[in-house]
Amino acid sequence: MKSESEEKRPADLSAQIAGSIRDAIVSGALIVDARLPSEAELSEQFNVSRPTVREALKRLAAQSLIRTQRGATGGAFVNRLSYEEAYGQQITTSTLLLSMNDVDFATACEARFALERACAPLAAERRSADQLATMRTEVYRQAQPGLSDEGFCASDVAFHRALVDGAHNPVLSYQLAGAVEAMQPLMNMITFTARSREVIVGLHTRLADALEARDATAADQQLAQLAEYTAELFDKLRRARQGA
């Protein structure tokens, strides 16, 4: 038999319980590696059935906030969330926000390049030889005539991912995960029929040159030109559609 609370709000209970536990983790009331109360204890604490508790724990596990272990010493434990583990969630959330909301191309383009240009001075100062080599490799790939549109887009993302990670600031990398890996493919999908690979390869080459020379001003200038070129492509396509 369902409890009174479950009769009133069956759809919301697991989300509310997950939110309560998440708040305890965020506030520090539940610390990393702390063991959560058992399902029976949580069921009694929140006055709900064990399946409802189980669903709440699944929600928390899906957000990488908890992990479960089997055995006599098992149970649910507060997880140590890393930036790398959170990247995927950031990308998924950004992709959903762009697809489900009326975010126009100009707004997405402005946001993406404003964020990326914030990384350029740091990347010019801190980029590693490996990150620079990744950018050079992707520029080489992009120049190959047989590269598919899908391959070019993937290489474009990898190039800019290396630039962002070159800032060696995990908070910036996390924040830009959505901008680079959600916004950028969307922009590529819209503009690929009008873009010149030669122009992009040239901009990418000069951007890599600027980072190799640790010239933050030149790196920012190349990103500004890339932003302007992307906006021009969209405007050209928009005018073509209006004239059709």
Share in β-strands:
under 5%
Question: How many runs of DSSP E, i.e. beta strands?
Answer: 2
What's the oligomerization state? Answer: single chain
Specify the biggest β-sheet. 2 strands, antiparallel
Give the C-alpha Rg: 23 Å
Supply the CATH superfamily name of the largest domain: GntR ligand-binding domain-like
Approximate shape: elongated
What's the number of helices?
11
Order of helices and strands: HHHHEEHHHHHHH
Helix/strand-derived class?
Answer: mainly alpha
The structural domain count equals: 2
Please give a quick description of this structure.
With 244 residues, the chain is mainly α. It is built from eleven helices and two strands, in the order ααααββααααααα.
What does this structure look like?
The protein has 244 residues and is mostly helical. The chain has 2 domains: 4-78, Winged helix-like DNA-binding domain superfamily/Winged helix DNA-binding domain (Arc Repressor Mutant, subunit A), CATH 1.10.10.10; 83-236, GntR ligand-binding domain-like (Four Helix Bundle (Hemerythrin (Met), subunit A), Up-down Bundle), CATH 1.20.120. The protein is built from 11 helices and 2 strands, in the order ααααββααααααα. The chain has helices spanning 4-8, 13-27, 39-46, 50-62, 83-100, 105-126, 129-142, 149-165, 170-191, 197-212, 216-243; strands spanning 66-69, 75-78. The protein has a two-stranded antiparallel ribbon. α6 runs antiparallel to α11 (216-243). The N and C termini lie far apart (63 Å). The relative contact order is 0.10. The model has no long low-confidence stretch (mean pLDDT 87).
